[in-house]
Amino acid sequence: MSPKRKHSAAPSTAPLTNDPVLRSVSRAVFALVLLFALLLLWRGHNAPGGGFIAGLMTACALILHRMATGESALRLDPIRLLPWGLALSFGTGLVPYLLGKPYLKSDYGYIKTPLTGEFEWATALLFDLGVYLLVVGSSLAIAYALTEVNPQETVEGDE
Amino acid sequence: MTLAVFLPFLLSALAAWLGPRLGRRTGYVAALAFLPALLLAAPLVRQPGVEPALEVTRWVPDLGLELAFRGDGFSLLFAVLIGVIGTLASLYSVAYLSEWERFGRFYAYLLLFGGSMLGLVLSDNLLALFGFWEMTSVTSFLLIGLWHTRSAARDGAVKAFLVSALGGLGLLAAVALLSIAGGSSSLSGLDVEALRASPLFVPALLLTLLAAFTKSAQLPFHLWLPTAMEAPTPVSAFLHSATMVKAGVVLVAKLGLLFGTSPLWPGITVPLGLATLVWGAWLALRQTDLKALLAYSTVSQLGLLMSLYGLANPAGNFAATAHLLNHAAFKAALFFVVGIIDHETGTRELPQLGGLRRQLPVTFAVTLLAALSMAGLPPLGGFVSKELFFEAMLKQGPAWIAVAVLGSALTFAYTFRLLRVFLGAPRAPAGAQPHEAPLGLTLPAAGLAATALTFGLLPSSAEALTRTAQHALNFATFSGHLRLWHGVTPALLATLLTWGLGGLLVWQARRLESWQRRLTPRWNANSVYYSLLEAVNVLSSRLIARTQGLALPDQLRIMLTAAALIAGVGVLRAPQVFHPIGTLPLGVLPVAALLVTGAIGVLLARNRLTAVVVTGLTGFGSAAAFLAFRAPDLALTQLLVEAVTVILFLLAFRYLPGGRDLPRSPLRYGIDLLLAGLAGVGATLLVLSSVRFLAPPISPYYLVNSYTGGGGKNVVNVLLVDFRGFDTLGEITVVGIVALAILSLVRLGKRGHTPSDRLPPEGERP
After folding, report:
1. What backbone phi and psi angles, to 5 degrees, belong to B701?
2. How many CB atoms lie within 10 A of CB A81?
């Protein structure tokens, strides 16, 4: 039942496109998108944003970079982010539990520094960071895995 | 007690980390984990029979689930037993395991197992008890399958897991029935009177027995235990002697106090236990592998324990607890000895070994003590507890004592078969230079054998230990004692008969062997297991072929029909759906037009790429709609999900064949049109129904409480990370698992490649 694939020798590592326009644009946009993603993560607690969205946006930026240059901007296997993200979210939730509050109950407060003025801290940010890492890891892992499939591999009987 | 249960779990994580760094020395760390369990002996020694201590730790109180550890005499005794054998097994493994073992895994699993076992015997909460019970199944699966490159180990692990998982399901049901009928999820808090009067009593009893029999390898579930010997020998000693397999015995002992009043309880356990005693011993006598012999001997001894605890009377409980201690001592010692023999000669095959007493005199002495205790010879512990066993069975009737004697005679016979490796002319495989094993291997075995001797020479010490369980198991009033010499009693006569019969079996060993070969049944529990497994596989693959082998369009038709039917019934039942049509905001009509255009565009697209891009149009349209309804969070999420989905689609489609239309008859066209229409109308009606609330909306609660409760002004985010944070945690777990699944699917058939080695080497990077 399963389609037979013609295996080709080496997996391709070349950029998917050789488009100079894409490469220049991605170089300019990459940092901006990443910065925006981090902003979304940071402000998520009080304004539209949050770990999930920020994670997706980061993944988009990294995929764009990968497409344009053929190189991963992330210097580690994205799948490795999964356990860390999960552990961070789980661990953040565990702290209030061990302190006798409900599991995952978040805490918050305010800090005043001369440099930034008053700003709010919330443990929810840590939880969100876990979500962020996990989403980045999963979507990148899937995208990279699909990118690494050699496009020359075709299903038999294809026209 | 809580510490005793948790320390192995904590140190397990540490051991996983230390394993690759410290190597075999991790075993010393592992041994430390059982220290608190050993310290539990203190309350036992100080004041036997005091009020049991209760330690409660919060877990999920809303579900009645808490970690309640109750230290009554029996639980503590058992916990100490686990601690002792666990410590010895850890120390023994330091000397036993080879240099290239994966220590991180080995000790982590060993400690996880020890911790679950401690939790199991100490738990007072029924749900927690079930949890620990299942954890022992999972961890023993990991331990048995430790050498997973060997198919026998995988097979043994799967078999052990399937059989004990079956029992686990039984236990779950039993626990549920018990807590419903008894009105409490705590073992000590059950309302015994209500429980006995309840119609759920008999089902709970039967299910409990199913669990106990599978775990303790009683007939016909004994098949998993011998294959479980694929685990490394220290693990076998731990699993077989003290713990895993005795979990079922513990269950029968503890719940016998509840169920014992029903004639069903002893009516099932005693005959089955005795049958297991005889059959296990018979099978043990047939083995040529020393470890297999010991494994079947464990099956047989568990049958003995089961029949005694199954009596659920003071005499049975007393005898069983005494034998439990003896069995742990001699069986662990024997496993350690077999490990030594394996270590020194490189084989465990009986026919290849002989006369080892010359090269291994110390090991021989140790084996002799442990083995004679197993055979029930004086002056060893096994003799004393076997007398009690005969006494208890004598009270049951002549048939019972006959079976008991037969089983014990077979035990006698296989013990001497085991000792044959030390007797006769020296024989060892070529190249093996057996000499005395290092102290690390000999000492644990010698210590246990000395215990077996102490239990026999000083029966009062064994009795003191046994009596610590007297309040927990309700045999405080029992007047019997452990003694070497009771005078000439019927039990002594039965013992003499056993020896005579056993001696006969040893003398006629050759004839017995040929008999056994002739009497081997054509099918056994193992073949039944394999044919069952085969049948289940065939059944499931046929079922899948029937239900999921259709072409994609056909499956889609089935799904759409089902969706239309379900939604249709829902809408018909709720006529108020049509009410809010007049109140629709008309401002979103342009967006709706965009969505419809996108949907029609997908239909018209001749090529996959176009189709995906146009599908994206509907997604972005929805985002616009969310914006129109003032839900920026949703809109943002929708936008990004849409973007990533389109990227992934495009990546996946690169290597699919071009789109082709399957030929469709006009009738098919008609059906498809109808289905599509119904699905569309159904979805619209469903959305409409959600516009009008049937119950007071819950959103004001979040609007009011999000800032004070979660400290955030973005209600959606606070909802995600605080109020419903547990859901989010579950969802991201699912996301992670999906990523792993896709990864393994994509990499299927491409072994040896990880993404990192597919990146260009350092020098070639731009």
Report:
1. -60, -45
2. 24
Torsion of CA B498, B500, B502, B506, to 10 degrees: 170
**Angle formed by the axes of helices B398-419 and B509-519, nearest 10°:** 110
Q: Find the range with the poorest average confidence among A75-79, A147-151, B11-15, B732-736.
A: A147-151
3-state secondary structure of B122: helix
How far apart are the two ends of chain B, measured CA to CA in Å?
A: 60
pLDDT of residue B692: 61
**Six-digit token string for A110:** 């305010």
Distances (CA, A) of B173 to A12, B160, B245: 54, 20, 20
What percent of chain B is predicted at pLDDT more than 70? 92
Is the pLDDT at A7 greater than 70, yes or no? no
For A139, the closest chain B residue by CA position comes to B739
- C-alpha separations of B540 from B2, B549, B722, B745 in Å: 43, 13, 41, 21
Q: Give the 3-state secondary structure percentages of chain A, helix then strand then coil, rounded to 5.
A: 55, 10, 35
- The ipTM of this complex is 0.83
Going by the DSSP 8-state scheme, the letter that residue B125 receives in this structure is: B
B732 contacts in chain A (CB < 8 Å): 85-86, 89, 130-131, 134-135
Higher-confidence position of A42 and B757 = A42
Instruction: Give the distance from CA B35 to its chain's centroid.
Output: 24
Q: Does the pLDDT value for residue B376 go beyond 90?
A: no
Give the pLDDT confidence of B78-97 residue by residue, as tens digits.
Answer: 888 889 988 988 888 888 88
Compare CB distances from A138 to B651, B656, B736 and report the shortest one's residue: B736
Amino acid residing at B483 = R
In chain B, which among 698-717 make CB contacts under 8 A with chain A?
A: 710-714, 716-717
Alpha helices for B469-588 (secondary structure H): 490-507, 509-519, 525-548, 552-573
- Record the pTM: 0.78
Structure tokens at B75: 């639980």
Q: Does B751 touch chain A (CB under 8 A)?
A: no
Give the DSSP letter of residue B48: T
DSSP B124: -
Beta carbons within 8 Å of A20's beta carbon, 6+ residues apart: none
Residue B251 CB neighbours (<10 A): 25
Check pLDDT > 80 for residue B426.
no
Is A145 at the interface with chain B, CB within 8 A? yes
